[in-house]
Design goal:
Elements (H helix, E strand, L loop, with lengths): L9 H12 L4 H23 L8 E5 L5 E3 H14 L5 E6 L6 E2 L9 E9 L10 E9 L9 H4 L8 E7 L3 E6 L5 E6 L4 E6 L10 E3 L10 H11 L11 E2 L5 H11 L2 E4 L12 E2 H14 L3 E3 L16 E2 L1 E4 L1 H14 L1
Helix pairs in contact: 1-2, 2-3, 5-8
The chain binds 2,5-anhydro-1,6-di-O-phosphono-D-glucitol and manganese (II) ion (2 copies).
The site of one manganese (II) ion has 4 residues, from β5.
Length: 339
């Protein structure tokens, strides 16, 4: 009888990684298990949609002045409740909370800091388009007593784990702990994430770009030049035709890039010139940049590698260009030429 291929669950994967590479200490393993469990529960809520009464807008705004959706709040609560009691965390920070959430005194304090965008792609919730959860893990610096916001202000290079869970046609968890990017698909019958792709690699070249074209008139020159050249196609300086995709869920656009290459951009623009960009450094740009780099791609704000940026505040925003390496290098070069 042909031997059935053994499925590797996320739990087994983490245990084996802890044993073999020592990359995942016990507390971090627990943390990743708990985040995955929370994502399963968010996935359930997302799947129920109107039947679960989770669609629509809540009557509140987040710290960045955005109207919250019911699912933004639900996903945030699920992540907090799942993570506060396990003893693996010192504190959490979220796109949907004004300030950090310190683990309450009644629970033991762990050594990690967890940051998340509980529900990325909020504008897609009510129209049944892919959305996701993005997370990033840092170690709390051990030279400070207690925990404060300043402990979170570490460069992306300091991340010890990062990933996202996309709630699409499949629910898929994509993870890095610093030695490549692996992917797990939720098996709903088993109730567990199963390893479905290892060592994801982004091709260095691409013919696909993702940007919100409606902002074109607000971009600066290097950005306009890059996109103009893509649009000029075969007859233009690039000598090839490009294809465009914009899902408006970063998680879904980045997932496509991890699966088949491409470049994603949310650059600074003139609408609100004092803001560095729309996307958030700690909850979106850093985890995604690390995943992309771990898969052989690159990520920049146009001038600097995103992972090298030293955050100055929790909800800091940043200009983002990431994906296939040669395209990101070209973007960097165009920005340098202008400077
Ligand atoms: P969020 O839903 O967490 O606020 O993030 C939305 C972000 C990102 O996911 C997406 O790429 C971008 O905003 C979409 O922006 P536009 O509305 O300008 O297309
Ligand atoms: Mn987001
Ligand atoms: Mn969000």
């Amino acid at each position: 009888m042909a031997q059935q291929q053994q499925k590797i669950s996320l739990t087994r994967y983490l245990v084996e990684k802890q044993r073999a590479d020592g990359l995942i200490p016990g507390q971090l393993r627990l943390l990743l298990e708990v985040v995955a469990r929370a994502c399963k529960s968010i996935s359930q809520a997302v799947n129920k949609g109107a039947l679960g009464g989770v669609l629509g807008t809540a009557e509140s705004e987040n710290v960045q002045g955005e109207i919250q959706k019911k699912l933004d709040i639900i996903a945030n609560e699920v992540l907090i409740e799942a993570n506060e009691w396990g003893g693996h965390l010192a504190a959490m920070a979220s796109e949907e909370m004004d300030s950090i959430y310190v683990v309450p005194n009644r629970y033991p304090q762990g050594e990690y800091l967890l940051m998340f965008d509980p529900l990325d792609g909020s504008s897609n919730i009510d129209v049944n388009v892919s959305i996701g959860t993005i997370f990033s893990v840092l170690k709390k610096p051990d030279d400070t007593p207690g925990v404060q916001e300043a402990d979170f202000l570490q460069a992306g290079t300091q991340q010890v784990a990062a990933g996202y869970c996309i709630y699409g046609p499949q629910t898929t968890l994509v993870l890095t702990v610093g030695n490549g990017v692996d992917m797990f698909t939720l098996d709903r019958e088993q109730g567990s994430f199963v390893l479905t792709q290892q060592d994801i690699q982004i091709p260095a070249d691409t013919k696909e770009f993702a940007i919100n074209m409606s902002n074109q008139r607000h971009w600066d020159e290097p950005m306009k030049r890059y996109i103009d050249e893509c649009l000029a196609g075969k007859e233009g300086p690039r000598g090839k035709d490009f294809n465009m995709r914009w899902i408006a869920s970063m998680v879904a656009d980045v997932h496509r890039i991890l699966m088949r290459g491409g470049v994603f951009m949310y650059p600074w623009d003139k609408r609100e010139p004092e803001k560095a960009g729309k996307l958030r450094l700690m909850y979106e740009a850093n985890p995604m940049s690390w995943l992309v780099e771990q898969a052989g791609g690159a990520a920049t704000n146009g001038k600097q590698r995103i992972l090298d940026l030293k955050p100055t505040k929790l909800h800091e925003r940043v200009s983002v260009m990431l994906g296939s390496r040669n395209e990101v290098e070209r973007l960097t070069q165009y920005h340098a030429e202008k400077a």
